[in-house]
Amino acid sequence: MNPQPLYDLSPALRLMFMGVVVALGPLAWVWLRNAQAAPARRLQALTVLTLFLTFDLVVFGAFTRLTDSGLGCPDWPGCYGNASPSGAQAEISRAQAEMPTGPVTHGKAWIEMVHRYLATGVGVLILTLAAATWLQRKRGAPVNPWWPTVTLAWVCLQGAFGALTVTMKLFPAIVTLHLLGGMVLLALLCRQTVVYEHVQRGKGPSAISPRAIALLFAAVALLWLQIALGGWVSTNYAVLACREFPTCQGSWWPAMDWRHGFELWRELGKTAAGRHLDFAALTAIHYAHRLLAYLVLAVLLVTAWQLHAGGALRRQARWIAGLALWQLASGLSNVVLGWPIVAALAHTGGAAALVVVLTWSLCESRVGSMRASPHPHLHPGKQASRGPRDPLPEGEGVTQ
Predict the structure, then answer these.
(1) Contact (CB, 8 A) for 73 and 113
(2) Contact by Cβ (8 Å): 281, 273
(3) How confident is the model at residue 384 (pLDDT cuts 50, 70, 90)?
(4) SS3 of residue 372 by DSSP
(5) pLDDT digits (tens, 9 = 90+) for 19-52
(6) Strand partners, 76
(7) Are the CB atoms for 148 and 130 separated by under 8 Å?
(8) pTM for the whole structure
């Protein structure tokens, strides 16, 4: 029997067809609910729905990883050359018989393929969003098609990382980059959603203090670093290297191998030299994520307090504080309860939600003061006197 090729493009068209089928329902729902709405309102509805489904895709991707289903179909984009596991029952049964708890089983194959179907559906929605935005721009609507176009390019890159995740056998650096790519998609879609909201309400970002802006940027930077570390913990299966809190292995500073733990370009479970990755390296991976979590939690709570005190972004402040505490609770549950899948999914979902909320907060804010300004047109409060045909000031419309 000839070995199965890593890249089998023969079922690609059938997989794309499945993506279209997945996307048809959301597209029809948006169209029916917004048939009489303005173009910007329809684009906003489609963007919000795509954002929601992308969030679901990120969480389902975590479910795929946590159930060890990432290699449920060991080729790409199909499953043993078929568009679904139904056509590969013989091959899957053979692999499952050889390794009953191995990476290829009927259940894991279906989980992996459902993840691919959902990812393709999201790709179709993003393609539709980009095409619709260009069409509306051609018809004279004041929309900027470049952000949806960048999002389309990014989702194509994300698909390539998804393929490499399979063909490179869960290479930790690739899987972590795939996770980060999903978070970038959320940020891109959130940014577009907020811009459309500005158009709907006729006002731009709110003025907040320079200190609050600085805290927001610090929180965003630390969050992305923490998500990268969290992905590194998960992809290296280092969650259970420390099973108690606040200590680890009965010590405040356990034995750790930082050098091998953070060799980025290596196979799963091995060092860059090809030797087995020891437990001290896994401990270093886990403990780095835990140590940074203390700082991230503090910065998020201080940021939430500063935004709430400022008054302009109180709703975002409450979300930031609530999600920070959610991450604390779900992260501790992973450690003390032995990494239950519900807690692990909650932790990934919380991180994704924080990306959305912090992106939302940044897009809704600008440095400023409510005192008199030599440039009164920069203040949101001055926009109420603008006529219906007057253009929005630069930075406040969909043409951002």
Answers:
(1) yes
(2) no
(3) very low
(4) coil
(5) 888 899 988 988 888 888 887 888 999 999 999 9
(6) 7
(7) yes
(8) 0.88
Query: Cβ atoms within 10 A of the Cβ of 156, count?
Result: 12
**Residue 265: CA count within 13 A, CB half-sphere:** 0
Give the amino acid at 18: M
CA dist., res. 81 & res. 77, Å (int): 8
Question: What three-state secondary structure class fits 56?
Answer: helix
Quick: pLDDT tens for 97-149. 999 888 999 999 999 999 999 999 999 999 999 999 999 889 887 788 999 99
- How far from the centroid of its chain's Cα atoms is residue 13's Cα? 26
CA dist 133 and 289 (Å) reads 40
Buried b (16+ CB within 10 A) or exposed e, 207-235: bbbeebbebbebbbebbbebbbbbbbbbb
Please name the amino acid found at residue 102.
G
Question: What positions carry a catalytic annotation?
Answer: 112
Q: Which residues of 289-327 are buried (b: 16+ CB within 10 A; e: fewer)?
A: bbebbeebbebbbebbebbbebebbeebbebbbebbebb
